[in-house]
Amino acid sequence: MGKLLKKELRLALHPTAPIFLLLSTMLLIPNYPYLVIFFYTGLAVFFTCLTGRENHDVDFTLLLPVAKRDVVRARMLLVALLEIAQLLVAVPFAWMRQVLIQAPNAAGMDANVALMAFALVQMGLFNAVFFRVYYKDVRKVGTSFLWSSAVTFLYIMVVEATAHAVPFVRDALDTPDPAHMAEKLSMLLIGAALFTLMTWLTCRRAQGHFEEQDL
Q: pLDDT band at residue 118, thresholds of 50, 70 and 90?
């Protein structure tokens, strides 16, 4: 698994992925739907899979003495590491946003701990949709991205709307840190658990789909 992951990092990961990580600086934009920033990680996943299709990455990998299940596991591990990196890079910019721009975010959730919780759920949801479709037919990368994008942006709209319409979100979660930190940390734990569970279950399901493909 270690060698497969090394191959994913060196040969498969699209070069735009590190650039998209730097888009966490968009947290410094006033009045912006900040969850959109984490969608760009999904775009990096799409570019990685698309480039892999054009470069016959799957065909090359299956020529190696590895099981199909391990091929899926390595790709999912790469994606999870990329998404966690996006979250970690976003943290200092979220702190800077609260220090430099103390006005609330009129477009939705503020850049705080609760935002990171919602971002984790968003990325787990993206994984669940994208890879369940992708590993049914690795040639149809566009279809996978279309479905996962639609679900992701629907999720973003719902979450941003709750920041205005749901009292608990508006009055407790969508507030500057460290206010209501107990509630926000609880949400962060829930978000981390959901991200882990969705990604793990998706990996299991994707492994089954991939093994059924005649490649």
A: very high
- Tell me the per-residue pLDDT of 121-145, one tens digit each, with 9 for 90 and over: 999 999 999 999 999 999 899 999 9
Contacts 24+ apart (CB under 8 A), 75-78: 75/8, 75/12, 75/131, 76/127, 76/131, 76/199, 76/202, 76/203, 76/206, 77/1, 77/5, 77/8, 78/5, 78/8, 78/9, 78/12, 78/13, 78/48
pLDDT exceeds 70 at position 215: no
